[in-house]
Amino acid sequence: MKAITFVTQKGGSGKSTLCISLAVAAQEAGANVCILEMDRQATVSDWAEHRQSETPEVAQVDETQLADVMRVLQGSAYDYVFIDTPGVDSPGTLSAIRAADLCIIPCRPTPADLRAFKPTLAAIYRLEKRFAFVLNQTPPRSYRNRDAADGLAVLGVLPDVNVVARTDHQDAIGLGKGVTEYNPSGQAAQEIRKLWAWIEKRASASTDKRTQVTKHVKAA
Ligand SMILES: Nc1ncnc2c1ncn2[C@@H]1O[C@H](COP(=O)(O)OP(=O)(O)O)[C@@H](O)[C@H]1O
Ligand SMILES: [Mg+2]
């Protein structure tokens, strides 16, 4: 089981939106997924209440519960646990980063968003976690995307897909759906499927590396 944490201090950058639609896309790709929600704003729980399907399962947890919940989930049938965090730097955010195999930092191509993730990145570095940025709510084509991508690529890894600002994302969440369920052939759905394929690969790479280190230590 791998944990993927969606994290950045900046509210509105798309943590919950990406967490939800990527969880649904991961399910559609054959994975067992659950979502742990650490944000009291409860965007994901509200979404789940509007949803017809029972999956992905969503549970609210706080920082006092997270480590224990993760320990129990290690032995479960889940392939992925997605952790959605609040838009503030809090003990909960730190524990969610600590629990992660991979942190996803959604970022709009705006100066405010590009400044806002710095404390998050510092915490991720401190805890030696793997991470990737995702450019979200971008214009379809703009020099802004290229400039932001160039800036982010200096600091870390960036997928080969941006998530463009599209109303499908807003409409899907309102109806308790992922964007791939709401409009399967739409461009928003295609971007999310491509993004999930990239994230899945990167999440496996992190585990493989750790397994190798563990093997080496055991062999020594
Ligand atoms: N790619 C996108 N296209 C259009 N709207 C988006 C997109 N990503 C997020 N949004 C919208 O932006 C707002 C904030 O997104 P949200 O996921 O709640 O951010 P966060 O969880 O980081 O605070 C929501 O209204 C959501 O519908
Ligand atoms: Mg949110």
UniProtKB/TrEMBL annotation:
Domain CobQ/CobB/MinD/ParA nucleotide binding: 4-167
Organism taxonomic ancestry: Bacteria, Pseudomonadati, Pseudomonadota, Alphaproteobacteria, Hyphomicrobiales
Domain of life where this protein originates: Bacteria
Any single Pfam family the record assigns to this protein: CbiA
Designated name of the protein: ParA family protein
